[in-house]
Amino acid sequence: MPLSSATPRLADIESRAVAAYLGLALGDALGATVEFMTPREIAAQYKVHDTIRGGGWLRLRPGQVTDDTTMALALGGAILQSGRVDALACARAFDDWMRARPVDIGNTVRRGLLHFRVTGIPETEPSEHDAGNGAAMRVLPVALATLGQPEAQVRAACRAQAHVTHHNALSDAATECLALMVQDALHGAARDPLLQRRVIPLVTQHPEFEFRNVTRSNPSGYVVETLRVVFQAFFGTTGFRECLIDVVNRGGDADTTGAIAGMLAGALYGEAALPKAWLAALDPPTRLECAAQARALLEVRTQPG
Q1: Residues facing 55 on adjacent strands
Q2: Does residue 1 form part of some domain?
Q3: Nearest-5° angle of CA 277, CA 76, CA 182?
Q4: How far apart are CA 86 and CA 211, in angstroms?
Q5: pLDDT, tens digit, for every residue of 84-136?
Q6: Total domain count, the chain
Q7: What is the pTM (predicted TM-score) of this model?
Q8: What is the residue range of 220's domain?
Q9: Which of 294, 270, 272 lies closest to 185 in space, CA to CA?
Q10: Are the CB atoms for 37 and 291 separated by under 8 Å?
Q11: Are the C-beta atoms of 9 and 35 separated by less than 8 Å?
């Protein structure tokens, strides 16, 4: 079944890809301010948090991003250097990223990268404890680089980067679903087809991800809680700004829920929907690198291997 009535032009796909990457960074920067806060605490301090202002527990500069964006950029760099999604190249890029002392790093990511340093193996053992959201938050470069490839290859590429740090069935399912949703949105899919084509099958296979008629939560880094609130915000709003404000004001792991919602909403609504005030506040080198990498990653799909 076609995703849209018309085939999108290459320029439209590129514009949506840039919007997805900038959306990831915007959601990250917006959400980082209220990470680990409760909705009640956010309301007491900001009424509604809708401004990129920095601060938060990491004491960020206004517009500064966290590990969600910087890990994605590290992954994208590895893909561009290799010309494909290669697990060893991803592991080396992530290790270099960690050695550069990022502003934040998740425990599962750290554990996986220490395993790689010791063993040289770019894949952790399967673990029920690895169902965090770290592999999902950084998957956007894979979605862009594998656009147009058979779905089985897209899923395999998602797992190749994910298993460096997160080897878990729920993490895999979430990561693959997000990548395929981004790709469908780049090709012009609207919200309802994304729900029917990607999210309903995910929930059918893994009922833990059911998000409809689920009480609003203060999400942790557990990938199930992350996707529940992202889907509630994404399918319950009708615009980029509204979606991101909705999700980050739930608090919890707000930089990651903001980043994931931002990449989905950016791909769906496009560059014109990105708030100009937020873009102006975003760290300029990050803004430029995200846009440039989005365009470059789309070219990888024409490479052999």
Answers
A1: 60
A2: no
A3: 65
A4: 33
A5: 999 999 999 999 999 999 999 999 999 999 999 999 999 999 999 999 999 99
A6: 1
A7: 0.95
A8: 10-300
A9: 270
A10: no
A11: no
Give dist(CA 301, CA 38) in Å, integer. 41
User: Does residue 282 contact residue 22 with C-beta atoms inside 8 Å?
Assistant: yes
In a domain, 68, yes or no: yes
CATH number for the domain harbouring residue 228: 1.10.4080.10
Let me know if residue 95 belongs to a domain: yes
Chain Cα centroid distance, residue 255: 10
Residue 3 belongs to some domain of the structure: no
- For 238-254, write each residue's pLDDT tens digit: 999 999 999 999 999 99
The owner of tokens 């960074």 is: 25
CB-count exposure of residue 225 (10 Å: 0-12, 13-18, 19+): buried
- Across 184-201, b (16+ Cβ under 10 Å) vs e yields bbbbbbebebbbeebbee
